[in-house]
């Protein structure tokens, strides 16, 4: 067996001595059934004492071929090891990869069966996993040096438990399997052998609802069924024999003698064989971890710590990338200057717009010239401008803009905000750019046959368009089409703006 080593216990007859049930020393942490699972921190190895390795060894090394394997061809009689391994192999939840590994490496099959038996009775919690590259935070990794010598993947506890729950006999898929010890015994008396699968039997015996019944029927107080798998001062060999006695008692006919009987069980029908109590020194000599397993456990724990550190660094880097992608760059003075100069919209080099050497600084015909002060922590504020003057621009002044240069929409909006007095009359606007833009829109509007109702002096005269005067549907006395419009005489030529 791959799980065997130089420190494995030897199958020798155990000495029989007087045993007082009150001398059983159950550790305080296992007195309550809620603390039955093994409790270890993430990355901490499960020692031989944790899993009671010697007990598992005696259970799976027993050579007695007394159990009927219902799933094997011909229903042969096999030992407990073959019975349990075959039950796992024929589970509907056992994956093909796991089955191939069990066939190719029989040592791994036995190791997997041992960890499955601990899960079957509840010693292995469903939060445990046995491969160090496990990422989910809902699991804790634990190397098991004594059961991982074949380099096989022991899966994790939830997958093992799913495999166990599906390890039923063919007729148990149609009808629910028995769920109490009495139901199992009734099926056996009725001649249905085996009455249930070995996995379901262990689930029933481990159920807390039946713990009192099992203890009163088969054990002497204060020992119960689950005490067989706890680190108590009872010899591993005698506990293994009591476990096998119970399995045979429920899976076989009641009229056949139990091959695991001893003098005590024969003298007390229904009672398990006598279990041998150990002193503290004798208890410490069981389940001893060899040095190579200790070193391997430390190595796997260091690999787990390294993997978690790399996983944490990768997670932090991913969070930083997402945070940087969601950040919006702050608006600074450079953005304000670019918006003012038109670099953002026009894509052209910025042009300095300011007053000439000899014009009015606040001239209505030009942008208000000022220097943009860059500041990395604040948005550029506009410089206060003098009050706008209403009236025609000064002719010949050097402060006038080059009217041949067109502004973009953004530049013109910025210019209007900087130079327009909101309290001044709009009729006094003398901006060449305003007139130019209006001229463009006015020409396009008239080409489409539109009217010009909003134009006001001094840019145009309030006259009726010629096409309204010459309309064949209007007579000389027909009023204009909008209020306030003056109808020009027919003979008077129409003047444009």
Automatic annotation (TrEMBL):
Biased composition (Polar residues): 343-353
Matching InterPro entries: Ies1
Regions of compositional bias (Basic and acidic residues) in chain numbering: 279-288
Region (Disordered): 1-27, 275-295, 340-408, 445-497
Gene Ontology CC annotation, any one: Ino80 complex
Domain of life: Eukaryota
Name this polypeptide is given: Ino eighty subunit 1
Organism: Phanerochaete carnosa (strain HHB-10118-sp)
């Amino acid at each position: 067996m791959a799980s065997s080593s130089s420190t494995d216990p030897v199958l020798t007859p155990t000495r029989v001595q007087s045993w007082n049930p009150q001398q059983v020393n159950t550790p305080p942490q296992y007195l309550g059934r809620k603390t039955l699972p093994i409790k270890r921190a993430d990355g901490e190895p499960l020692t031989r004492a944790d899993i009671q390795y010697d007990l598992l060894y005696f259970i799976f090394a027993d050579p007695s071929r007394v159990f009927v394997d219902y799933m094997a061809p011909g229903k042969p009689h096999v030992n407990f090891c073959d019975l349990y391994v075959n039950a796992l192999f024929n589970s509907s939840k056992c994956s093909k990869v796991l089955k191939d590994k069990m066939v190719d490496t029989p040592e791994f099959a036995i190791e997997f069966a041992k960890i499955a038996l601990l899960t079957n009775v509840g010693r292995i919690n469903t939060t445990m996993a046995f491969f160090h590259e496990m990422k989910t935070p809902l699991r804790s990794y634990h190397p098991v040096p004594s059961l991982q010598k074949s380099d096989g993947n022991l899966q994790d506890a939830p997958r093992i438990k799913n495999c166990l729950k599906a390890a039923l006999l063919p007729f148990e898929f149609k009808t629910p399997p028995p769920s109490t010890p009495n139901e199992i015994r009734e099926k056996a008396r009725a001649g249905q052998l085996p009455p249930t699968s070995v996995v379901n039997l262990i689930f029933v015996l481990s159920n807390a609802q039946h713990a009192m019944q099992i203890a009163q029927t088969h054990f002497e107080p204060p020992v119960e069924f689950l005490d067989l798998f706890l680190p108590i001062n009872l010899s591993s060999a005698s506990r293994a024999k009591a476990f096998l006695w119970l399995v045979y008692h429920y899976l076989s006919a009641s009229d056949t003698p139990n091959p695991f009987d001893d003098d005590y069980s024969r003298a007390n029908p229904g009672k398990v064989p006598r279990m041998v109590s150990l002193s503290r020194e004798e208890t410490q000599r069981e389940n001893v971890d060899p040095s190579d397993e200790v070193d391997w456990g430390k190595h796997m724990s260091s690999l787990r710590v390294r993997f978690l550190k790399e996983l944490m660094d990768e997670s932090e880097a991913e969070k930083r990338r997402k945070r940087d992608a969601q950040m919006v760059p702050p608006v600074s003075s450079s953005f304000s200057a670019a918006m003012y100069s038109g670099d953002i919209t026009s894509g052209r080099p910025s042009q300095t717009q300011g007053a000439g050497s000899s014009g009015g600084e606040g001239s209505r015909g030009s942008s208000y010239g000022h220097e943009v002060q860059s500041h990395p922590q604040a948005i550029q504020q506009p410089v206060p401008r003098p009050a706008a003057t209403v009236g025609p621009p000064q002719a010949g002044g050097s402060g006038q803009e080059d009217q041949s240069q067109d502004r973009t929409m953004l530049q013109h909006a910025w210019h209007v905000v900087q130079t327009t007095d909101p309290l001044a009359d709009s009729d006094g606007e003398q901006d060449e750019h305003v007139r130019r833009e209006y001229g463009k829109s006015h020409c396009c509007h008239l080409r489409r046959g539109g009217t010009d109702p909003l134009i006001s002096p001094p840019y145009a005269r309030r006259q009726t368009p010629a096409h309204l005067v010459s309309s064949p549907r209007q007579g000389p006395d027909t009023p204009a089409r909008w209020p306030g419009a003056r109808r020009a005489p027919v003979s008077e030529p129409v003047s444009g703006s």
